[in-house]
Design goal:
single chain; about 325 residues; alpha+beta; D-amino Acid Aminotransferase, Chain A, domain 1; 3 domains; five-stranded antiparallel beta sheet; 9 helices; about 30% helix; globular
Length: about 325
């Protein structure tokens, strides 16, 4: 019986992929790492069909040729999109060829007959939609923050007043704006709505934003679901003014991390969330309030985990390795 063969789709210098690849190698599995961005520049795909259907599916790279039908698991980490070949100088033609390449390479991974972690790209993109996440979370029995998504200033003013100004905003999807004047990048996290923000509420008409009731916190929780396993870490974000509103403004020197024991019913809701979204992996953000309520914020279908593992000892990488080898 041949050894399991895992294809990892990611960019260069991905420490998460490197850690799991090392664990896979220790267990005798073969790992191939490929970045979609290398297609046409350093790699090529070959698909052939007979009258009866597909006859071969090959990936040619600088290190050799891979028969994609020998792959036992596909791990969609964080690949970059295909780019136009550098010899194409016309911007319109370059954009066209990049889009055609994306159409082919994206469809290729959608139909590979093997386990896919966390899910096929189309499923990951659909699962990342925050408005739909809130609907599903409430259906599953989670408490969610009172939320407004609108582009009218009057709606924001009313929401702000009803909550006595204790509201936050966060982006709908992309958390950054790149290549601003001077080449700067602006990163947007969860932000308290200030008096200045309210004064500029008319600007909402240019772009939708999520506005939520601010949820008081005892601790914040990052719950990582891997297959049927649930790893919960508590983040004592309230220990630091920097991380009080959003723990991603890390202040690790004064914000302890620890293993958290989720109530069984909350763990079951987390598993149901990934099941309903078609995921076998998901990173869920919850708040544990001072009065003991678990409030759902969002789920990242392809979230990072390594810093949690290093701070808490939770064996998340090993669980992902198990998942990739399961049924190989």
């Amino acid at each position: 019986m041949s050894a399991p063969h895992v294809l990892v789709l990611t960019r260069d210098n991905d420490p998460h992929a490197e850690r799991v690849s090392d664990l896979l190698a220790e267990r005798g599995a073969r790992t191939t790492v490929f970045d979609n961005g290398d297609y046409l520049t350093r790699a090529h795909v070959e698909l052939a069909y007979t009258a009866r259907g597909l006859s071969r599916r090959l990936l040619h790279t600088e290190s050799g040729t891979l028969d994609l039908d020998t792959v036992t698991a596909l791990w969609w980490r964080r690949p970059t999109p295909p780019q136009a070949h550098p010899e194409i100088t016309d911007p319109s033609v370059a954009a066209y060829t990049a889009q055609e390449s994306l159409t082919l390479i994206g469809d290729l991974w959608e139909h590979l007959p093997c386990r896919v972690v966390p899910a096929r790209d189309s499923v990951i993109r659909r699962a990342a939609h925050k408005p739909s996440q809130l609907i599903l979370a409430a259906e599953l029995g989670f408490e969610i923050p009172e939320t407004l998504i609108a582009t009218q200033a009057d709606a924001l003013w009313d929401f702000h007043n009803r909550h006595d100004g204790h509201v936050v905003t966060k982006p709908m999807g992309l958390p950054w704006v790149e290549n601003l004047a001077g080449g700067h990048t602006v990163i947007r996290k969860c932000e308290l709505v200030s008096a200045r923000d309210v004064a500029y509420a008319e600007a909402l008409r240019y772009c939708p934003v999520i506005v939520q009731q601010y949820v008081p916190k005892r601790v914040e929780l990052r719950v990582t679901v891997v297959g049927r396993r649930v790893f919960a870490a508590e983040i004592h974000s309230q220990n630091s003014n920097r991380s009080k509103v959003d723990w991603r403004r890390y202040d690790l020197g004064v914000t302890p991390y620890g293993v958290h024991r989720l109530p069984d019913e909350v763990a079951e809701r987390c598993l149901a969330m990934t099941d309903r979204l078609g995921l076998v992996y998901g990173a869920i953000d919850l708040v544990l309030t001072p009065d003991g309520r678990y409030v759902f914020l969002e789920i990242n279908p392809n979230g990072q985990w390594m810093w949690i593992e290093e701070l808490t000892g939770l064996p998340i990488s090993a669980a992902i390795c198990d998942l990739l080898l399961e049924g190989a």
